[in-house]
Amino acid sequence: MEFGQTLAEFVKGVSLDKVPKRDIDVAKLAILDQIGVALAGVGEDPGVKVQNMVNRCTANEATVLGTPRKTSTWLAALVNGTLGHTLDFDDCSSFGHPSVVLVPAMLATGETQHRSGRELLEAYIAGYEVGEALSRIVPRRADQFHGLHSTAMFGPLTSATVSGRLLGLSALQQRHAWGIAASQAGGITGNFGTHTKPLHGGIASQAGVMAAELAASGFEANPDALDAPLGYIQAVVAANRMEGVDIGKATAELGQWHIADTWRLKKYPCGYIAQGAIDAALRFREQTGLRLEDLTSVEIRVPHLQPYFRVRPTGEFSGKFGYEYPVACAILDGEVIKKTFSNEAFNRPDIKRHLGKFRTLEDPSSATDQGPLGALVIVAKGKTTLQPIEIPLGDHRRPVPPSQVVEKYVRNAGEVVGTDVARRTAQMLLEIETLPSIRPLLDQLAKRS
Hints:
Layout: H1 3-13, H2 21-40, H3 45-54, E1 62-63, E2 70-71, H4 73-86, H5 99-112, H6 117-135, H7 150-167, H8 171-182, H9 196-216, H10 232-237, H11 248-252, H12 259-262, H13 275-288, E3 295-302, H14 324-333, H15 343-346, H16 349-354, E4 358-362, H17 366-369, E5 375-380, E6 383-388, H18 402-417, H19 419-430, H20 439-445
Parallel strand pairs: 3-4
Antiparallel strand pairs: 1-2, 3-5, 5-6
Helix pairs in contact: 1-6, 1-8, 2-4, 2-18, 3-4, 4-5, 4-9, 5-6, 5-7, 5-9, 6-7, 7-8, 7-9, 8-9, 13-14, 18-19
């Protein structure tokens, strides 16, 4: 059972001196984006309800974004993780939504342990790379890991990595932390389209923070819980379907650094797979000048339809996890933004009247015959237009300029802390490795100064 020890030794050895500049730069953009997205979630139902429960705790240790209130480290991670996933506007990677789990743990533990910005950045990178390593063990199947949400499945361990690194855990303690976190992994995709999907991010981050702190206190788990019989890989990640499982894939690329080659930014606050289809709809609108009332039918052809993307838009959260509604809004409004996913927007007569024209079709040939990710087949005024669905801007293969990530952050954070503070904190986050302490930054993000 050498896997856990190999992984733990890697985590302890992560240093910015070893990481390529391009990966460091992307990591900083990811942290920036996640904090902005979390602030944009302030005031939405999931965060409000979770914070109302957390307010019953009298601890005064770690910052909850957007409010002067502090709470315990793990409850701060719970709230900030829930806020960060509320709009589904947060980033993606090979192991789900990375930063919604990593950043709350990084902030909570880093604040209470008086760590520097450089130490926080190194912890984030260590957690990201552990997530990438774990995701290589088992190929992601069509049912997204047998119905489990990858963010909730990998998140407790990546969060435990971040907090463990910032707590200075020994290799053995880190392995205990992973064992504790592994017993908290889960999250069903059947809850997509409800308040509970955002909660997945919060619970995963909280679980890792708590696991690391327990391990630091001497609390024990199976130090080989990752790859032991009936352990995390067999029982959770592979769910006893061990064909194709290869632990060597997890360790073979340690130290090769994957952030710049896997990180994906979202332009629109909804499920990632719909991002390219929204881009295609906006291009169609701009190129043709046609509007929703001009259309006879729209087929959204995609090579593979994830089961959770079959959710029909019936409420402000479920509309984020289908194709039809956001594509229709792109053609109707010329934009897909935060207010697109509100009950008011859902209930507009012009949307209700035309949404029946849209349908999604699983077509395995569409990726090769039409566009990289499929196509929109639009019939309007007796003419059929095929609009390819391209790889969306924000994908690691089509990275956005850093200035656009900053603009997104300022727009999101500015809703809560004001534009001036948003711009000032953006600069601080872009230079996070130079900060002697994270506390002055958090004071501004919590409106304490």
